[in-house]
Structure formats: structure tokens, C-alpha cells
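Sat 14:20. Reprocessing the chain from the morning session after the first attempt stalled halfway. Input below, unchanged.
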Amino acid sequence: DVDRNIPVLKKRNEQRFALIIGNEKYASSNPGLNPTQDVPYAEADAFMVRQYFEKMWGIPEENIILETNATKVTMERVLSQLSNFAAAMDGEAELIFYYSGHGLPSEATKEPFLIPVDVDGNDPELGLSLEEVYEQLGSSPTRRTTVFLDACFTGGGGNVGLFASRGVRVRPKSGVLSGNLVVFSASTADQSSLPYHNERHGMFTYHLLKKLQETKGN
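Finished this time. C-alpha cells:
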């Protein structure tokens, strides 16, 4: 039901910029994985989030970066692109970062990482450090920076976690936020994020979009 009746804001907001990443198909990039370790509906989540951002929050199409099944190189590039928008706007930009996909902690340091599709559960340190993502997003002043994470960092979640075959559960350490940054996350440090099969979205994303739909973006 969140895929229909999206509130429409007629006024465009040229100072808003968004990066949307939906990482679903991990098995196709990692021979050691199977499709049960993909993240169901992450692509659908990303496409629908884009529609809400564009129609409801008035973000111009050219101000939205959408990537599905992004590799490490791609994720680094588009994250820098989002940060560059803020740097060019002299503190007047509003940034929004949405991610649906796997997250994993380092077993050694417990630091949480966002996992590109070309990284598997054996080497989470090859992903994007969540702390560094926050630092990069906060490197330039903004009016507001908002992060939505439909991911968990225990080694489980989605459908079956990337660590599921080894049964590993690591409680990731908590990060420290700085600057004008707000984070909405699907789960706490020791929880899993799950799909909502009836609605064909991530559980977190479905309820996020449902609330935005009901409140017309407020």
C-alpha cells in the first residue's frame, strides 16, 4: 500500500540532495554465497524511496543519486559526490542518505561496516566504515543531514545474514555522531533487520514510508 498514493509536494527544493543505495544481489557477485544470503526487496526499497524523496520532499531528479547492487568503488564515488554537493552549497544544503543492504561488524574491532555487493562476510573491513561515512557526510556544514539505515550489524538480518553459515553474531560498537546529523536505524546493536514479505519491502522501510505517507512527509 505504500507504493500507491504518494503525497506530492509541488514546490521543488533545489537545496536538497539525496543518495539512495539498495544492495540486494550479493550472491551474483560472490561465488561463495547463495541467493538465500541476498537482501530481499532492497532494490524495491531503493526505487520507492526515490519516488517519495522526489514527489513528497520536492528533491529535483538531478539532485538524487540512485544505485542498486553497488560495488565498493561505486559506493565510495557516490558518497563523495553527495559530500561535494554540500561543499558547493556553503552550508545551505540538506543531505539525505538512505541505505538498504547488509551491514557487518569487524570481528577484531567490532566496528560496523556497510557491505557492497562485491564484499562477502569474511572480510567486512573491505566495506565502508559506518563511522567514516558519518565523518564524510559531516565534513561540510549543512542545514541538516539525515541518514536512514535499513540494515543491521550483527551478522544476521535481511533474509539470511552473510555470516549465517558460521553462526557468527558480533555486537558492533556504538559510533559517535557529530555535526548536524540525525540517524534513523532499523535495529539496535544486537538486533536483526528483517523483510516484510507481505508488503515486499524491508520492515523498517515499509513503516518509514507508511509514516511519511500518512503525515504527508512531516
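The helical segments are 42-56, 72-88, 130-137, 203-215.
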